[in-house]
Structures are given as structure tokens and as C-alpha cells.
Amino acid sequence: MIFQSTKTASIKASLEEAIFNSLPADNGLYMPEYIPQVSAEFLAEIETKTFKEIAVEISNTLFDGEITRSEIENIINNAYDFEAPVVNITPDNYVLELFHGPSMAFKDFGARFMAAIMSHFLVRSEKEIRILVATSGDTGGAVAQGFYKIPGITVTILYPSGKVSEIQEKQLTTLGHNVTAIEIDGTFDDCQKLVKEAFLDKELQSKFNLASANSINIARLIPQSFYFFAAYAQLKKLGKPVVFSVPSGNFGNLSAGLLAFKMGLPVEHFIAATNLNNAVPRYLESGKYEPRPSIETISNAMDVGSPSNFVRLIRFFDDDWNSIRSKVSGYFFSDEQTSTIMQEVYKNTGYIMCPHTAVAYLGLQEYRKVNRADLTGVFLSTAHPAKFLELVDETLGIKTEIPEKLGLLLHIEKVSIKMKPSFSEFKAFLMK
Ligand SMILES: *Cc1c(COP(=O)(O)O)cnc(C)c1O
Fold this sequence. Notes:
Elements lengths: L1 E4 L6 E3 H7 L8 E3 L7 H5 L6 H13 L5 H11 L6 E5 L2 E5 L9 H19 L3 E6 L3 H10 L5 E8 L5 H8 L5 E6 L3 H13 L1 H6 L1 E4 L5 H7 L1 H10 L6 E6 L4 H11 L6 E6 L4 H8 L23 H6 L5 H5 L2 E5 L2 H15 L5 H16 L5 E6 L7 H8 L7 H4 L9 E3 L3 H9 L1
Helix pairs in contact: 3-4, 3-11, 4-5, 5-6, 5-10, 6-7, 10-12, 16-17
The protein binds pyridoxal-5'-phosphate (PLP).
Pyridoxal-5'-phosphate binds next to helix 12.
């Protein structure tokens, strides 16, 4: 598969280059030069396939010989020991639960695949890799779990001190081995800035192979398309058009859904659901893209004022506003609407949603108001409610049970390196 930069079509990369470079030199993002189609036979019998079989087929279609089918099977087997089940909540409304992985957020799908495909290439090239990642919460946990104990790769995670939940912090700071957590006395933006400076530093670049593990890396985007196919497989028998509502921040998840659609997945419509960080819904409404500084909300994993995957979103539609509007609708919601719907759904169905999932549910309901066709609605659940324990318990007036894999963490001592947001200090740490 050949990738090209969104900014300069002549800047091209192989799959391996795109994964290890993360970003093209012109600061664009990598996109497939050409999007291959899944076969009609595959779609005709998709309902008989397991998640892993679907993941192998999609990868094989995309990688077309660059990685053999048996190598792909190996990668998928190493990446996934968890599923993406669809659960019926109310008539015609289904939740796609993406929180059954090790860190209990959907980012496990991308991080696990990225780790597995990187180690596949490393076996061939014997390079040492240092992954740097800045996190505001969920990314760090998924990346730490994904790369834990993978030979030839070390992971350095930067997080803002006091600004992630207790469970999230424990996910970053309790693994050890090849995973190091740096606790920055500053904000998420400070962390991101330090990582960016490291990538630009010639001395660090010559000493190490630095790679990024955030959603600009194509290796995180591709595997997120698997579960759109897997959800369709579970719902196809209902025989109705399928719409997906995607709770969005940096828009990696929705970009992956669009990739699935462009590969031939029959999707009626997509809903871009956000909190008050609403640059994309406003763009879909007005045609003007005006990113703003992010604002804090209760669905904090989506507090992104300037989504990094926006350029990918519109590139799927040749940068044409009318064309993207015919396939994607955007809606945004306040914290009050979010907590009210969490309470309502809990009261009526017993189902507990995290605030991000609730935003997706609201998006689906909003779409139904203007589009009464007989539809199967799927909203994506991006995190287990226990990851946002205090907020969920307070909103619903309950005591959420903590799943074992999160609960055990709370008893392990955190280990972090405290640091000021100073590049010279960070560089000195990396160099030694
Ligand atoms: C990262 C995250 C999101 C946003 O996903 P994007 O791909 O950045 O749009 C939504 N919900 C949760 C729980 C997340 O961790």
C-alpha cells in the first residue's frame, strides 16, 4: 500500500515508512494513495466471520502483498484477544462496545495493532525504536499496554500532573519494564510540545529511531476500521440501512469509519458527535473551518479544539464540503445534555454509559429527529464507564462496580519521573 501526504501528493511512503515516520516531512498527514475495495464475496458472507477473520481480510485487502496473509494472521492474533460486541439498548438502537481491551477504551484497537505491526517490521530490520507519546488520559494507557514488554521498543509517556483520573494515572505508571511515565508539572499542551520538540531535535533523531503513537500515525487509524465492518456483520441480518454515531475529539475514529465506507462497507450515514469543542459540526453546518482553543467538558477525552484528523476527514471527500455533508452530519452537546441523557438511559434501560458514549447516543437521537427512515442506529461506546468512576457515580447516584483489571491497579504503587515542562531536562533524560 502506498501513502501520500495530504499536503504534497508527490511525497509518498510505503506502509513501513508511513508507520515509522508517523508524519510526512511537509507536516501533512499520510493518506492512502488509492483505497482498495473489499470483495463482494466477503461482504456477502460477512455475518459468518469473526472479528479476527474480518481484521485479517481488511488488512490483506489494504496491504496487498506488502505483508503476506499468514504474517497478517500472526499480527492480528498477537493484537486481539478481545472483541467488539454490539448490544441492543432500545428498539433500533445498538451500542458498539469498544472497551473490552486491556485499557478499557477503544484506543486499544489502534495501539495493540500498532505494536504488533511494528514488531513485525522490527524482526526484519533489527532497529531499536523509542515511542514518545503525550497523553491527556486514555491514549497513554492503551499505548503502555499495547507495547508492554515488546522487544526492541521502549515507550516514554508524558502526562500532565494532576490532570488525569486516578485509574488513568495508574495505567501509565504501574507497568514498568520498557514503559516509563514522565509526570509533567504543566498541561497536556506542554506535554505535546515537548514531544514535538524531540521529533525536531537532530541529535535525538540521530541517536534513536523516534516514533509517534498518537492518532496521526496511520497504524492506529487502519485497525479502527475493523470494528465498523464487525458491527455491520452483527447487524446485517436486520436488513435495515445502518448509521454510525461516533463520539469525536481528534476524529481518528470517524476517519477510520470513512475508510471502511470507502472500502465498500454499506453505511447509510455517519454522525460526528462532539461536546462543545465543536469545530467539525460547525464546519459541516457553515462550510467554514474555525478551530478554537479547547474547552473543558465532562467528556474530557474529546476536549480537542483543533482536531488533528480534520484534513483526513475532508480528504475522503476530495475536500468538498457538499460531498462530505451528504454522508456526515455533525451535532454538538452541552455537559448538561450529556448528564441528563446518561440518567435517562440508565433509568429506562439500566445501561450505564460513560459521558463520551452518551454524546454519541445524543447524536443518534438528533439525527433520528430529522430522518425518520427505518434505520439501524449504532452508537460507539469508546470507554468503560468505570474509567470515569466519580463522574458516572455522581451523575447516576450509584456505586459502579470496578472491573477487576482496573481495580487491581489501584493497589499498585505508582512510579513516575517528575519533570518541569523544560525541553533541556526532557532531552537530558532521553539521552542518558
Ligand atoms: C480518544 C477518545 C475519544 C475521541 O476519539 P477521536 O478518535 O480522537 O475522535 C472519544 N472517547 C474516548 C473515551 C476517548 O478516549
